[in-house]
Amino acid sequence: MAQQIDDDQLVAMLKSPDNREKGYRLLLAKYGSRLYWHIRRIVVAHEDAEDVMQETAINILAGIDKFEQKSSLGTWVYRIATNEALRLLRRRSGIFRSIDSLGETLVEKLEDEAGVDADSAEMLFQKAVLQLPTQQRLAFNLRYYDEMPYEEIAKVTGKNVNTLKTNYHFAVSKIKNYLKENSL
Question: pLDDT tens-digit profile of 66-125?
Fold first, then answer.
């Protein structure tokens, strides 16, 4: 049922005090899994992803009355989730480091969380993605995993389409190089 509900109907439900709870459940049914994995690819740890999901939910419910539907509901929700995930990484990075310097820390979290062999092709690929600078990683994840068109990624990230294409191209190139250099 959740996949069949129109986003306009969902927004109307979320804006209605009488239907807000049902609308929220339907929103989670429609977008929850994709959002969780989007967040998880950014923050890596399950617990962190759950925390970001909760903050995202709070922000969605707090901001739904101001949502003007200039973008799709999905794009708006992804933007909130992305901003919350990046906010968590910024808090973790400390005052003197950028979130781009968290690559090794995120790889360590990945290895701690992983249910796969540390030397597997899947793990190697994930490590390669985590080594990317943040903007390249976001562009890559949204394009590769979520199969978003660049125009939608631009709305989620606030970046221009040409910049995103460049970030994606560099990300693919860096991933290929990382895989070549680290393959057995």
Answer: 999 888 999 999 999 999 999 998 887 664 455 555 566 665 666 666 655 556 777 888
CA angle, corner 144, sides to 42 and 104, nearest 5? 35
Q: Give CATH 1.10.10.10 domain extents, the chain.
A: 97-184
Q: Which long-range contacts (CB under 8 A, 24 or more apart) does 20-27 make?
A: 20/61, 24/57, 24/60, 24/61, 26/1, 26/2, 27/60, 27/73, 27/77
pTM: 0.81
DSSP 18: T
Question: What pLDDT is stored for residue 44 in this prediction?
Answer: 86
Which CATH architecture is the domain 1-93 placed in? Orthogonal Bundle (1.10)
How many CB atoms are closer than 10 A to CB 97? 12
Residue 39 near residue 81, CB atoms below 8 Å: yes
Distance CA 93, CA 100 (A): 9
Delimiting residues of CATH 1.10.1740.10 domain(s) in the chain: 1-93
CATH 1.10.10.10 fits 97-184, yes or no: yes
For residue 98, give the amino acid letter.
Answer: S
